[in-house]
Structure prediction request, 377 residues.
Amino acid sequence: MPQILIIDDDPSMQIILRKALQDQGYSLEVASNGEEGLSKAHELHPDLIICDWVMPRVDGLEVCRQVKANVDLSMAFFILLTARGSIEDRVKGLDNGADDFLAKPIEITELQARVRAGLRLRQLSQDLQAQKHLLERELAEAASYVRSLLPKPTQGPITIDSRFIPSSQLGGDCYDFYWLDPDYLAVYLLDVSGHGLGAALPSITILNLLRSQSLPNVNFYQPHTVLRALNETFQMDEQNDKYFTIWYGVYNRAKRQLSYSTAGHPPGLLLVPDEAGHRRVEQLKTPGMPVGMMLDESYVSYRCDIPANSTLYVFSDGIYDIPTRPDAPGWNFNYLVDALTDYPNHQNLDHLLDIIREATGSVSFGDDLSVLELTFD
Prediction:
């Protein structure tokens, strides 16, 4: 049964409103002033409030402001009862949160119709809120599932650390690393366009495809052949207009050489120690459009040596493409490079994320953020 709260300091108006609504199947409560009305609103959490504008001490406009400012009450449909008919007054009421107006003297059939309409809108709002919570739960479950598929950090001759921080909308970030044989380590990170399950599902499909090495006629030791096969398999015209960027590398630990290829993805950043004890940054990137955009796109592999005590960072653009607060220092790709150079010994991705949060003034990130850190002995 819908709960309606009537707030009016005029006893005769209370009687009129009660008689007009008592046979309509509602549960009615009455308050004689603004303070009592706010108290009963907090107690009852009504579905709809009819409140007189002009009342002593706490007027209807202030009641409306306080109700709409309270997260537990803000969904209540609020009708201001007023003899004021000017556009300026209506604008003022709407700006303070009123959902509808009822002019004095009251027309009973109009009152009943506006209450029915208000309760319908209230129910629609509740349904939308329930669907929103359901979607948020499903996205959280999807993010948890994606996280469960990702490899765990590992220690050894190559120490690999990683972070996967999905945004509130979830997205298409995914990564993996595994040994093709005892001497060759494959590592990649990809980012499917868009957000939500529509981006997450293709990334999971690609992860499973690469992990099982199910792409036909592909030499998984040659990064450019992997990207070429992915591009032939995942054309956006056949994938709901989804494309993705990817950084893919294969490390030969016997020769200490890394072969890599990229498709529209941010470069990997290789930090190499020099004789002075500092570290220089090499950007590891090859030409190539994102996978899925053009069927005849060609990809190439480059190779580089990996000196001892080098560190490689592979990441999605969510690590630097972050909106900053006006009072924050600022953040972009170049700042990321500087941060990695200035903090060469932290060996802790949480510390890097703290640096980003401080620079952007943001606790959360606007997009999915994934990063791999490979430290070579």
